[in-house]
Amino acid sequence: MSTASTELYSLLIPLSGERLLVPRVCVAEVISYTTPERPKQNDQLPIWYLGKVEWSGRRVPVVSFEAISGDEVENRAGRTRIVVFHAIGCDLSTGYFGLITQGFPQLVRVNGDVLSLETEQPWAEEQPVLCRTRMINEYPLVPDMERLETMISKIAA
Predict the structure, then answer these.
(1) Which residues of 123-132 are buried (b: 16+ CB within 10 A; e: fewer)?
(2) What is the CATH number of domain 4-112+145-156?
(3) Are 16 and 136 in contact (CB under 8 A)?
(4) What contacts 154, CB < 8 A, 6 or more positions away?
(5) What residue segments make up the domains of the chain, in order of their start?
(6) Are 30 and 13 in contact (CB under 8 A)?
(7) What backbone phi and psi angles, to 5 degrees, belong to 124?
(8) Alpha helical stretches, state H, 12-101
(9) How confident is the model at residue 5, as a pLDDT?
(10) ∠ CA(111), CA(96), CA(22), 5° rounding?
(11) Beta-ladder partners of 39
(12) Per-residue tens of pLDDT for the chain, all 157 residues
């Protein structure tokens, strides 16, 4: 089997204290941060649901992975971006959702030589996380996109 067929172009998405590892094809675009517009029932929404932003003629829901994890939401300044993801399920009517990031995602090529499952650094059960990986010196999380989309769809509707 050739090396090209066993590699996957992926993105390391920087968060406040973690990094997410996602396949490149999941990401539609990285856009500048604009403050999401929250619905009027603001006090009934979870802190991780930031609201919606206009993107490519759609109103796309935006979330904070840090807040889902129970971490403090950082000040939105300078390097903050919104990564717009393709929805993989049918739960989101727009077909997309946004995730706050603390900078630009980094393109990486992932293969069996650089990636392995990490079992010593756990994550909270309620997080939409499939697993933690070890990639050279880093320990990025692989998000559970289906679970994340389901969480968003329950609120964004």
Answers:
(1) eeeebbbeeb
(2) 2.40.50.180
(3) no
(4) none
(5) 4-112+145-156
(6) no
(7) -70, 140
(8) 65-68
(9) 61
(10) 15
(11) none
(12) 444 568 889 999 999 888 999 999 999 999 999 999 987 776 788 989 999 999 999 999 999 998 887 766 665 667 899 999 999 888 888 899 999 999 899 999 888 777 777 777 666 667 788 888 888 888 899 999 999 999 999 886 6
| Tokens 């920087």, located at residue | 14
- Separation CA 26–CA 87 (nearest Å): 8
Rounded CA-CA distance 142/66 in Å is 14
Q: With H, G, I as helix, E, B as strand and everything else as coil, classify residue 42.
A: helix
Residue that the structure tokens 């029932």 belong to:
41
DSSP 3-state of 112: coil
Structure tokens at 16: 């406040």
Q: What are the structure tokens assigned to 33, written together? A: 């941060």
What confidence score (pLDDT) does residue 155 get? 86
18, amino acid identity:
E
